[in-house]
């Protein structure tokens, strides 16, 4: 896993951000189990709640191409401070990742820190939590 490369791809993806409301551009790069990398940016909306974060844009691209196992996600932004995925994105990463999925959080200069999902979303809620309790939903 090449963390420098993933952060570079996230920084590149940030250039495509559609962020006229916050002015805060975010880019993400998702590496899947096949080794492929999918990028995304934040896509804002005048109805703010309809905004999609960069991480979820990238994940939707990967999943819609048939790639649903995420091994790493890099995030980059315009901030001086390192940017971490929001709570909703952590939940979405956990849907397609696992405890060891790497989350590489960087700032606008490309300085980064590496975490694992188990550290930034401990005790994640997962499908198995209710699928096993509701036999009717087991497939
Ligand atoms: N944003 C992301 O794209 N990813 C995150 O993890 C944090 C927030 C975006 C959403 C919105 O367009 C802007 O940053 C300000 O919240």
UniProtKB/TrEMBL annotation:
Its EC number is 3.5.4.5. One of its GO terms (biological process) is nucleobase-containing small molecule metabolic process. Transmembrane segments: none annotated. The keyword Hydrolase applies. Its cofactor is Zn(2+). InterPro entries: APOBEC/CMP_deaminase_Zn-bd (IPR016192), CMP_dCMP_dom (IPR002125), Cyt/Deoxycyt_deaminase (IPR050202), Cyt_deam_tetra (IPR006262), Cytidine_deaminase-like (IPR016193). Coiled coil: none annotated. One of its GO terms (molecular function) is identical protein binding. One of its GO terms (cellular component) is cytosol. The active site is at residue 55. Keywords: Hydrolase, Metal-binding, Zinc. It catalyses: cytidine + H2O + H(+) = uridine + NH4(+); 2'-deoxycytidine + H2O + H(+) = 2'-deoxyuridine + NH4(+). Zn(2+) binds at residues 53, 86, 89. Residues 1-128 form the CMP/dCMP-type deaminase domain. NCBIfam families: cyt_deam_tetra, PRK05578.1. This enzyme scavenges exogenous and endogenous cytidine and 2'-deoxycytidine for UMP synthesis. Belongs to the cytidine and deoxycytidylate deaminase family. PANTHER family: CYTIDINE DEAMINASE. This is Cytidine deaminase. It comes from Thermoclostridium stercorarium (strain ATCC 35414 / DSM 8532 / NCIMB 11754) (Clostridium stercorarium).
